[in-house]
């Protein structure tokens, strides 16, 4: 890839190296260009890959995406860049050459992706714990074969660990019956940012790319020689302004993932579906559940699936499930799937580590666009790889495949499109072509950000690993904090390194909504729904000021982002752990203890407490909490939303905490701390007569 990179860079012109064209400029280019060579529909990994491949072959290229870049499956993956250990296992067991070649191709693509976006990706060691002696040589042989197939693209050689060494590297692992472990290497990346980097790279090379632009219908014209109807572009609608316009193109590529069939049916109504969607749910739990730089693979779950347990963005990600689903733009993670993943995680972790439902900070569902080959006689068999098909009217469809192979899928698609539409194009140049932010990035770049701008180290590391060399552009936009340290860079929320300047930079990267910022420009919504919810008012304020939003538009943005977090990012599942119907599962002594704690706040024995009661106790122990924050704390537990917390609601909370359904309850921790302080000090009266000392 290094040699290819030199060749690719030498040959490709970058017209917008300094500044990205605005979204408005891109829409004008779509509207005013008489005819493009290629129009790509879909802004996921595959669609963006096709646009980058086409534009670097000197084809006049356009791309439209009806939502945001990477808003679908491409942002909801397991975050791995992998060849597929389990595919290799199947290839060997069934002597399946096609499956073997699929793994080999993916391993080549893995090496290329790590090379062209080193800031967004890195090798990750993954441990495979072994609990039966006979499995050790079996798994070792399989993993060594994985290294062998990778050949020169092998990241690092796999190795075997003794029981004690495995526990030293992964102390949370279950000790019982553990005989050892095998560690192998795969790649890991920030999927939505990687997708965005591909789309922005296409834009910099001159492609007209626009998000929030949907295809209303396909344009067709009669071929003069054959008399057949041919697809010659698309009628598009800007979702933000509702304006419609035609985009004409010699070739239209359908790269819409799970929505493949809806575009195919625009081309030919009576065509049968080829997409068989499958939902994969992932959950995010706190970082302390896994070591900083070691993942875990459960090769055989209770129902035969594979579960990954990986450190990602200082959190731990666990998944995935595999259940048939309907195609939807807004998939929702199910409680059953969340609990299935938690059960599997419990099986591998030490009994000392209590895996609590309340520790699930976010959960999401992504739809895998599994496909059946329309050219195959047996339409029931699901194609394990991707397929490229060309309809009678010339619509090119790329479907299936996986994240890792997006580039080779794009190359194959463009080769087919160029051949079938007789386009004049140069050979593919995307092997080794550095993506947005990669050129000029070094592992120590963050140090310059700290030294030159006075950013916190954690913030500087985050900016360098998210934006690469473009991190300096973000740092330049950061406002002075007015503190001794950090000098610049005000955080959106205290426990995450995302700063306010990133919201402004996100607008330059075509972010149009608050959801774009919390889900794809930053990954806050995927990491912690409560933190994202907390950051939303500030994000909407910054975007509203920059984009001149009316008050009505700001309210609408806030509500739609909250709805997104509630349904698609698992906030609903999290908040429903404490409901009016929750059983109180406490023994007699616990009930007495918690009632006593409650009555320390409810001095008048009203049977409920309000912010005034809590504030009075906090003042007596010299603790200051903002009134709005206190209102929020009580509101989390106030199930009937009457502005007060009844004794039953408090007991339900403590029962949910005991069962692990709720964790980090601010009211529970605050009341316990206050009680302990009061017990140490003894009773303190707050009703002093003369306000004496």
Automatic annotation (TrEMBL):
Its cofactor is FAD. InterPro entries: DAO_C (IPR031656), DAO_C_sf (IPR038299), EF-hand-dom_pair (IPR011992), EF_Hand_1_Ca_BS (IPR018247), EF_hand_dom (IPR002048), FAD-dep_OxRdtase (IPR006076), FAD/NAD-bd_sf (IPR036188), G3P_DH_FAD-dep (IPR000447). The keyword Calcium applies. Coiled coil: none annotated. The keyword S-adenosyl-L-methionine does not apply. It catalyses: a quinone + sn-glycerol 3-phosphate = dihydroxyacetone phosphate + a quinol. Residues 589-624, 625-660 form the EF-hand domain. PROSITE patterns: EF_HAND_1, EF_HAND_2, FAD_G3PDH_2. Pfam families: DAO, DAO_C, EF-hand_7. Keywords: Calcium, FAD, Flavoprotein, Metal-binding, Oxidoreductase, Transit peptide. Pathway: Polyol metabolism; glycerol degradation. Its EC number is 1.1.5.3. Calcium-responsive mitochondrial glycerol-3-phosphate dehydrogenase which seems to be a key component of the pancreatic beta-cell glucose-sensing device. Belongs to the FAD-dependent glycerol-3-phosphate dehydrogenase family. This is Glycerol-3-phosphate dehydrogenase, mitochondrial. The lineage of its organism: Eukaryota, Metazoa, Chordata, Craniata, Vertebrata. The gene is GPD2.
